Amino acid sequence: MIPYQHNITKYVATPANGKVMRRKLEERLKAMEDYSNAAEINCEEYNGTKVGVISSGVAYQYAKEVLKRRFLLKAGHDLSHANGKIRKFAASVEKLYVEEMDPYIENHLKWRVSRASEKKSSQNG
Questions:
Q1: pLDDT tens readout for residues 13-53
Q2: How far apart are CA 96 and CA 10, in angstroms?
Q3: To pair with 66 at 20 to 30 A between CA atoms, which of 17, 20, 86, 124?
């Protein structure tokens, strides 16, 4: 067992410590996004069509079995940080579907789209 080490700057989120903690968090999130975009575990399977399906887990296996002639993006791990990969995949298809048991990826994509359109409207208006 590792003994507890008293470290106020790491474990106490006062405003002074919070600024440093926030910077570290943003660095870790950026590193996670870079990894997710480059990771081979989040892979594309191209089957010569313009219909794309984003899926993961058991739902991916179901989609692959049923939709043999579709372009699949397999989420090997959390896709919420693979924004570059998702954007590239979505741009390469005419129609995009999300196939999953619970709407985790779908909700994230809807949130991303609404957030991007809010940014656009605030820049234009």
A1: 888 888 889 999 999 989 988 888 888 888 888 777 778 88
A2: 43
A3: 86
Q: Residue 43 in contact with residue 74, Cβ under 8 Å?
A: yes
Closest by alpha carbon to 9, among 29, 26, 23, 28? 23
Contacts with 108 (C-beta within 8 Å, 6 or more apart), sequence order = 79, 80
Rounded alpha-carbon distances, angstroms, from residue 72 to 14, 18, 33, 37: 45, 41, 20, 16
User: Whole-structure pTM over 0.70, yes or no?
Assistant: no
Please state, in angstroms and rounded to a whole number, the distance separating the CA atoms of residues 80 and 84: 10
56: helix, strand or coil: strand
43 close to 75: Cβ distance less than 8 angstroms = no
